[in-house]
Design a protein that fits this description.
By secondary structure, the chain is mainly beta. It is built from two helices and 22 strands. The strands form six sheets. The chain has a four-stranded antiparallel β-sheet. A four-stranded antiparallel β-sheet has the order 7-8-9-10, with no helix packed on it. A hairpin with a 3-residue loop joins strand 8 and strand 9.
Amino acid sequence: MEDEEFDDILIRKEIWRYHVISYLTPSDILIFKQISRLGKQVSVGLFSERYIIASGLNAFIFDAETHQVIQTLKGHTDCIRCCKFSRDGRRVVTISEDDTAKIWDSLTGTILFTFEGNWARACHFSPDGTLLITASSNDYTARVCNAKNGRYIFILNHTDIVWDCAFAPDSKRIVTASFDFTARVWCAETGVCELTLTHQDFVNCCSFSHNGKYIVTGGDDDTARIWNASDGSLEKTLRHERW
């Protein structure tokens, strides 16, 4: 893994990910964030006048103007991997190495629901706030839950690790990226697979365009690919020298 230099700070990425985030206090992380562009990797949740930072077992919601902690989310028993606000800012989802995902009331810090049994890599609320999806490493699935009552709706199956997931802007479709060399497009109402998009190596990221007409995927085959979201046809391949 290459070193990166930002604002006269030289730091190896793996040291940042596995040591800095785990052991700095929230105030120290904030200071680092202000002086180094690399520090922006910590700020994984952002909504209006607040932002959220996960550090170790806890997540901290800050006032964006004063940089004071206004809510601390405590309840996980292992490191938090990801945290996101819902679009309306009223809820937060966190996923952890304790094999759970939790939905919180962002104003009170109360746990609303806990989803157990999958070691998730990524999570997203649907844009309309009704659904939650988590991408799982341990059972090769993505799981779709009702974000209002905490119930599982259906499971989306791959044949290897699911590394990323995303909703379409209208919340009606889902795309998942997997180490089985595919990204798959699903109906968010039925869980039926509508399209399979193929790379020549692991697929590790995916997203819909803002208008929902295109899907972009990135893979370890040194390419990013743009697909027609309607029929799955490949529109463009962007090649890199290395992943």
